[in-house]
Design a protein that fits this description.
By secondary structure, the protein is α+β, with helices and mostly antiparallel strands. Helix content is 29%, strand content 21%. Strands 3-4-2-1-12-11 form a 6-stranded mixed β-sheet. It has a 6-stranded mixed β-sheet with strand order 5-6-7-8-10-9.
């Protein structure tokens, strides 16, 4: 009788532990794992083949075409099932509840990497969209695109996701892919790419200020295409925007102070073949959400060296962080 009671107690304890682990893994427990990943021209095979047939040669104008891929992408990034399988392995290792995505054609392509998630994507007709993969079971609402970031459709808009809408745990997330070409230069550099990025920064700050003024928990995740470790004042003496991070992390209004989760973390390349020196993908937490950050939970998921050599993965790999949901 004693052995039976002991066995029953062990089985009950195992059941409780299993249920707790399952709840945590679906974001319905006390912890939420957030991440961001640029998947480099991720397009489902059928759509990729169709786009390849009419790819855009180098230096050619797309004209009125909204959907196209450059011919070098058509030649180099057609992914096989083995490639998608390797990407799914990275996603499984990441094991994130919510992943901000960049350079993804839409849900059909995203589902090839995240088969157990649901999706929100921007409505941009082009093949490079921002969005989110959300683990099934987590309540969410796809909010309207932040179209201001697209500068009238010239670049990419932002994807706005609301987790646990109308709940005390509500969190607002923004997935961004900002203008490339100005990763470590000041924003007042005369290069056109820096000028374009400098136009996006005040619009991003406006979204941040809106969330802070509404007393929300929020975060911005994505490919900012800029190194936030660059120091210096936000603006020059004549008021010209110069420093990205100093501009958005100005602490105004109240609640707008930001935390970049990779700050102070050692930079790690995705694979041995890369030689980058700093992060341009970021997870930036608003003040209220930063207070719920789990200490020591910074995540950098790198690639298996064999897969990095043989498979078409991405020139980016995920970073992330865990936050507490309990309130």
């Amino acid at each position: 009788m004693r052995h039976t009671s002991t066995l029953s107690a062990l089985l009950l304890a195992l059941l409780v532990w299993t249920n707790d682990a399952s709840a945590s893994n679906t974001g319905s427990g006390n912890t939420l794992r957030l991440a961001t990943w640029n998947l480099e021209w991720l397009i489902a095979p059928r759509e990729f083949r169709e786009l390849t047939a009419s790819c855009l040669p180098r230096n050619a104008s797309p004209g009125n075409r909204a959907r196209y891929i450059p011919c070098n992408v058509a030649d180099e990034l057609q992914r096989s099932e083995a490639d998608f399988r390797a990407l799914r392995k990275v996603a499984a290792d990441l094991d994130a509840d919510v992943v901000a995505l960049q350079e993804v054609d839409g849900p059909v392509a995203a589902r090839k990497v995240f088969p157990k998630h649901e999706f929100c994507f921007t409505k941009r007709p082009g093949v490079q969209n921002n969005g989110f993969a959300i683990r099934k079971g987590i309540p969410f609402r796809c909010a309207p695109d932040v179209e201001s970031l697209s500068l009238g459709g010239r670049v990419r808009s932002g994807a706005h996701l609301v987790l646990y809408p109308d709940d005390r745990r509500e969190i607002h997330l923004l997935s961004v892919h900002l203008k490339a070409g100005c990763p470590r230069r000041p924003l007042d550099d005369p290069r056109r790419d820096c000028e374009t990025l400098a136009k996006q920064v005040p619009l991003l700050e406006a979204w941040i200020d809106e969330q802070a003024a509404a007393d929300r928990r929020f975060a911005i995740l994505g490919d900012f295409n800029h190194d936030f470790s660059i120091r210096g004042p936000a603006r020059t003496d004549d008021g010209t925007l110069r420093n990205f991070w100093a501009e958005i992390d100005d602490g105004e209004p109240a609640g707008a102070r930001l935390v970049n989760v990779s700050s102070g973390e050692r930079f790690v390349n995705c694979s041995a073949g890369q030689n980058y020196g700093s992060y341009i993908d970021h997870v930036v937490l608003g003040e209220k959400l930063a207070a719920d950050r789990r200490p020591g939970s910074f995540i950098r998921t790198t690639y298996d060296e064999g897969d990095a050599l043989k498979r078409k993965l991405s020139d980016h790999c995920p970073i992330g962080v865990e936050v507490s949901l309990a309130r």
